[in-house]
Amino acid sequence: MAGSRLPRLLFLQGVAAVFMLAFASLYTQIPGLYGPEGILPARRTLRPQGKGRWQQLWETPTLLWEAPLLGLDTAQGLELLSLLGTLLALGALLTHRLRHPLIYLLLWATYLSVCQVGQVFLYFQWDSLLLETGFLAVLVAPLGLPPNHKQASQGRPGGFSPHEGLPFWLVRWLLFRLMFASGVVKLTSRCPAWWGLTALTYHYETQCLPTPAAWFAHQLPVWLHKLSVVATFLIEIAVPPLFFAPVRRLRLAAFYSQVLLQVLIIITGNYNFFNLLTLVLTTALLDDTHLAAKSSAGRRKRATSSWPKALLAMLTLLLELAVYGLLAYGVIHYFGLEVDWEQHVVRSRTTFTFHQFSQWLKMVTLPTMWLGAASLAWELLTALWRWVQVRGSLQKLCAAIQLSVFGITTLALFTISLVPYSYMEPSSHGRLWTGAHRLFGTVERLQLANSYGLFRRMTGLGGRPEVVLEGSYDGHQWTEIEFMYKPGNLSRPPPMVVPHQPRLDWQMWFAALGPHTHSPWFTSLVLRLLQGKEPVIRLIQNHTPSYPFHKQPPTYVRAQRYKYWFSHPWEQGQWWRRQWVEEFFPSVSLGDPTLDMLLRQFGLQDKSPPRARSSSNTLTQALHWVRRQLSPLEAPTLLWGLLGAVGAIKVMQALLGPQSLPRTKEEKHRPAPDEDSVAASKQASPAPNVSSGSHTPRRKK
């Protein structure tokens, strides 16, 4: 098995990039969501109740408990943490010296601190996924600087660490849990759209924030939509076990299938950083050989022609063909694929029942856990073999300590993850070792392992429900309040806002699925609009003059529920069409008994005004200054500006990298090694899967 130094490097850079985007995206929304004049002020979530400092920190693990020591309120503490997180992630993305476990631990702790007070606006699966991935990055990050080649050749600890592959294996296990569970829950939910293979005929127009490409995808023929659902089940349920395949090409095939799915989702939907984070997880399926810029001719030269290796290659090829054939047969058989040559279509249907699927799931859930355990056992054996190759008593002792610590940690995290993974099959969940349940319960608040299951049910089968806010000065003439990102104006094309997540727009989508009483925060939103609070208005329209009531707050506010559909191709100048359904929120004004009753019912009244803090605090003034500089920018512009700056700096680093530095006299006069001697030395080295500096480093593409 090839090494994983380059994939680990890509993983760490990817995690840093996602953290940067997540922190920066959240920073732009903090005043409107969590400020003193926001929808859900963060100060309400942290109220000391006479408990000890460490007890309250364990029960609510957030660094924001220490904000008053800096003279900051909770919202200002959120801004400070978001800015620090953005800068730390940016540094880790740009320089290898900052890709250290301590930096990733700070990023993880900072995002966990934010999530503890984020309330409903941070209750998304990708926030939990980022926390779990961020903690794995703490373990994957190297303890020291990248080794130099001389140390590697002498067998010193800087050459490679035997434990390196263990934490990175957990990334592959996380990717498996995410994808397999996301595929399974679509069928366990009994959603008729998924079982009827018609989910994608609704998905493109009913998802939270479609892109312009979603409109075109929605116009595709129904048979192609159904075939796409079959492909989704194949990629999410049948392919993930190949993540642990012993054959490298099978793992690469699984990698490219996952990449294809995520890229298509990015093109047709604004799912913020979620798909980017999933792509980062797929790096665990790669290896150094695949990423290195070696020509195929060079590989053929190194290949031996001995008959045992030729036989092994033939058996491997037969195994690959057998796996592909089995997948093809399963898809054709269980989804009834038939080619209609007259209509030039491929027909598909689900040929199994819910009971049959439930029995199959009950049969395979525990074996998939054993598959993960067997793969982990192989990684442990590989790590032990690497440890045996370490030379020198002191080096061997240091490597043994590291291997013991990381091995126990990896086993513990794997055991913990089995509990949320088994949620998808209740009987298997009940048969788990009780120690795993206790261990998971102990660390559950740290979100080290989570359950996943995206797109469980398809909503909006009869039309996309959409809440439209309206304001009025007299209660008779009403003006719609249009959001920047969610559907509203029928002639406005869907925006492209990835990797930003407008969290209010997302919650408006969830609110439309039920009565307003299921979304208590909506009452607070109405109150802030009646009060004309600018931080909340900027969540709706960052360019204040575009807000219809920017000069004077509306006297009355109400909300209507519509059903939206994508327009037909022949409807020129329109992207949407809609139909009124019902009143979503009654017309209210400040002091209205209905509004006051709802505020009391949901505990949203400001019983205690925020404490006045000195604005002369240097840190407070610095935060205000940064906010003034960045507030004119829309969040997607800010995020893409960050990515553009990172790209420019990366290009400069590549142009001015180590290869452009002058060589020392010793290097100039050192003779080039003979190819035969290099090949002989490689054959003499018995260590398999050395993942870093023990081999001559390959050039990157």
TrEMBL record:
Q: Where in the cell is it found?
A: Endoplasmic reticulum membrane
**Major subcellular site:** endoplasmic reticulum
Q: Please name the GO terms of the biological process aspect recorded for this protein, alphabetically.
A: protein maturation
Q: Which residues form the Lipase maturation factor 1/2 C-terminal domain?
A: 448-586
Pfam families in UniProt: LMF1 (PF06762), LMF1_C (PF25179)
TM segment ranges:
75-95, 102-122, 166-185, 223-243, 311-332, 369-388, 400-423
Map out region (Disordered) in residue numbers.
660-701
GO (cellular component) term, any one: endoplasmic reticulum membrane
Q: How does it sit in the membrane?
A: Multi-pass membrane protein
Q: From start to end residue, where is composition biased (Basic and acidic residues)?
A: 663-673
Q: Which InterPro entries match?
A: LMF, LMF1/2_C, LMF1/2_N
- Residue stretches of biased makeup (Polar residues): 680-695
* Alphabetic keyword roster: Endoplasmic reticulum, Glycoprotein, Membrane, Transmembrane, Transmembrane helix
Q: Which residues form the Lipase maturation factor 1/2 N-terminal domain?
A: 123-292
Job of this protein? Involved in the maturation of specific proteins in the endoplasmic reticulum.
Family membership, please give it: Belongs to the lipase maturation factor family.
User: Which named protein is this?
Assistant: Lipase maturation factor
Gene encoding this polypeptide?
Answer: LMF2
